[in-house]
Amino acid sequence: MSEGPVITKKRFIAGAVCPACSEPDKLMMWSEDTVPHRECVACGYSDTLNEQGLSVPKELGTRVNTLALKVPDAKVQAVQFFPNPKLKKKPDEHH
Ligand SMILES: [Zn+2]
After folding, report:
1. β-strands 27-32, 35-40: how paired?
2. C-alpha 10 – ligand 1 centre gap (Å)
3. SS3 label, residue 7
4. pLDDT at 42
5. Domain residue extents for the chain
6. Contacts of 94 (CB under 8 A, 6+ apart)
7. Tens-digit pLDDT profile for the chain (95 aa)?
8. Distance 25 CA to ligand 1 centre (A)
9. What is residue 2's three-state secondary structure?
10. Residue 22 Cα to ligand 1 middle (Å)
11. What is the pTM of this model?
C-alpha cells in the first residue's frame, strides 16, 4: 500500500459546456495530485487546469511547442541561403 498519485473519481459537471464541441453535460472532472483534469465524453477533448485556473489542452500544448520550434528554424535556413561574401555575418549574431 504505497502512496501513489491521489486520483479522485471522475464525475460529470452539471451545466458545464465542452469548449471543443459545445455539448452540455458531457464534461467529466477529476483530480490527479490536486491537478484538476477535465474530459469530454462526447468528443474526447481533455485538458487540465493550471495554477491560475486556466484551461490547458493536453494535445494542443505539445503541437504548439513543436510549431514554435520549427518557425525560427526555417528563418535561420532562409538567411543562410543569401550568399553575400562582402557582408559576412556570424550566425551567432542573429538577434
Ligand atoms: Zn466535447
Report:
1. antiparallel
2. 16
3. strand
4. 97
5. 11-93
6. 76, 79
7. 677 889 999 999 999 999 999 999 999 999 999 899 999 999 999 999 988 888 888 865 455 554 455 555 555 555 555 566 676 666 776 66
8. 10
9. coil
10. 6
11. 0.55
